[in-house]
Amino acid sequence: MAAPSLPYEDWLVESLKDPKEAAAYLEAAIEDGDQAVLMLALRHVAQARGGVATIARKANLTREATYRMLSKTGNPELRSLTAVLAATGLRLAVKPVEKRRQKATTLKLAA
After folding, report:
1. In total, how many domains does the chain have?
2. 31 found inside a domain
């Protein structure tokens, strides 16, 4: 008989209190390329930073709009996204693509 699995969400939310962990988690979600994954990751980070209601208040957004934005089907405007990130102590950044990945992307575009 298999051992029962342990819930991971409490551990995850606790680890996301560290800004470096939260940033790495969100970067991985962005690299995944699935918007639903990114919204779930943002929701986890918001939970780690005091909860969605607290983050909504800090971001000057309504609680309802913030919950909608962080749902699987959420599609935030850039200003809402940056407001939520700022409320969690993070910001959006752009960095160069690694050479290896850049070549793969260029090959996909050329096909």
Report:
1. 1
2. yes
Closest CA relative to residue 44, chosen from 73, 22, 74: 22
Say if 99 falls within a structural domain.
no
pTM of the predicted protein model: 0.79
User: Is residue 108, in this structure, part of any structural domain at all?
Assistant: no
The predicted-structure confidence for 16-59, as pLDDT tens digits, reads as follows 999 999 999 999 999 999 999 999 999 999 999 999 999 999 99
C-alpha 26/C-alpha 44 separation (Å) is 10
Pairwise CA distance, residues 79 & 58, whole Å: 14
**Three-state helix/strand/coil letters over 32-95:** HCCHHHHHHHHHHHHHHCCCHHHHHHHCCCCHHHHHHHCCCCCCCCHHHHHHHHHHCCCCCCCC
Q: Residue holding tokens 């342990």? A: 6
- On whether residue 3 sits in a domain, the answer given is no
Range of the domain at 81: 9-93
